[in-house]
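USER:
Working in pairs, take the chain set out below, taking as long as you need, and write a paragraph about the fold.
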Amino acid sequence: MAVKQPIHWRIALGMVLLVFFSACKDDEPESKPLPPTITSIMPDSAYVNDTITITGTNFDPDPFNMSVQFSGVEAFNIVAASTTAMRVKVPKGATSGLVTVTIAEQTSPGVNFKILTVIPTTITSISPQSGYYGDTVTIAGTGIVPADFTAGTSTVLFNGATALPAAAIINPTAKQLQVIVPDDAQTGPIGLNLKNGTVLETDTFRLTPPLPTVTTFTPTSGPEGTPVTITGANLGVSSANEIQVTLNGINAVITSRTATQLKITVPAGMKPGKYPFIVKVRNHAATSPTAFTVTAPPVASQYLYFAQGSEIRRASITEKDGKVTVTHAPLFTDLGDVSDIVIDKAGNKLYWSSIATNQIMVGNLNGSGNPQLVFEGNDNVEVNYPTGLAMANGKVYWANQGSSSIARANPDGSSPEILFDAQDNVNYAQDIEMEVVGNKLYWTNVGTAQILRGNVNGSGTTEEVFGPDDNLQYPLGLKLDANSGKLYVADSPTAGGVAPTDRLLSGNLNGTGGLTALFESGEGVEAVFAVAIDTKGGYIYWITNNYSGNSKNRLLRGKLDGSGKPQILIDNLESFGNAIAVQVE
């Protein structure tokens, strides 16, 4: 019979085995992350506090789980991280040597990295030490950080002027900057405003304009109005006010200019003779090596004075053997928009009105001297967009389109008075003319499509001469011929923004008989603001203005009776012509 074993030995054996296997399990090694590696550092050199990019493998996206060492100095500012890259600020105290990354007590092999030494920025010289707008200046020095100037965080200033844009700083290096002198530069030091707030200044840079020179001109002779091309150097300027060309002390109008070439017109009023051209650029003068020969113009049959924008030109018309020759030259310039012209032949004066300056002006008929102010309004009488001008009986008359009134004053501007206003049916008055024999004042009323008249002293009531019932649509320029009892008017609806045919019309001064068309748009009539008549030669003159975009600005003439075709006297005018007057010789 078998003997039964006690059960508690089995329990003891089980406990021994459990302890054994537990001990074996604790002895197994734990799983560790793969060690980090560095494949590149960009850039491979930098200054302290610069941010660099470290790329590699097995990085931790959590910056707090990594340690980056620069030759043993830990970087505490990891800006961003992923498993393959991180951005790190170079720590203070870092020196050139190995950069390592440590994660979970595993450190990557080191990669060499260079710490750049900060060199203080200095300026040692500037070259050249003088120049002018657009010139290149080299600033030499040490410790220049090109990237700061390219980014605009460091700037260059000429004597405190506006900071140069990055585009004006050429090829910056650690040792020099090449900069372009700006248009607002002034004589004084050149300053470097550095990113850290430091301001460095150079020695004085002197702003010195290059001296102009004149080498040749062509043609070498001609009468007034002759176009001349002057060739030289350093003739280009940013402002027309900085350059002047004179011939025998008379200013010539410059029609175009470059650094090496000027185009001018021989001024009106030049006496025959030999005169050098004097070109003055920013108060530095150059004289042509030879003289220009001014020849006598052909004996003119008549002179025309006409407006071109802000200048008044004089045209000489000569007819010989059936050939018509026209020359023209500026007489006065920079006048504002000239709106009407009146000739005072007895006084050798020329009067004009300007809608830009709201003034009545006077100048010598030959263009000499400076224009003088006649009147610009006072508390009682105004000059308000004066579109029409007339002179008779020792008075100057003008039409105020801006205030719908007719006014007059003495030629010296004294005793101004209003003759007619809106209560007298003045409505957007355009041109004004005188019938001296009948002591009547005529004007075109654009606002009501009428030609009105009233007494020259402003007494009585106004009356219609012609109006809409006579198919008048947009009357502008007006001229009278008291001897023949006729008036001539430009009816130009295209100037008012509507399309009916523009016409030059004639009619009786007393308003009888209706209006007769002399010339129409197909014959060179377009947006005509002013007309002039030559009763001796039997011509009507006008300037056509380009409103449609399909025609040119031209000065034309046609027979007063409307016969034949109009003749183009001047083609391709540069600007609008709002005024014209004829002086018969």
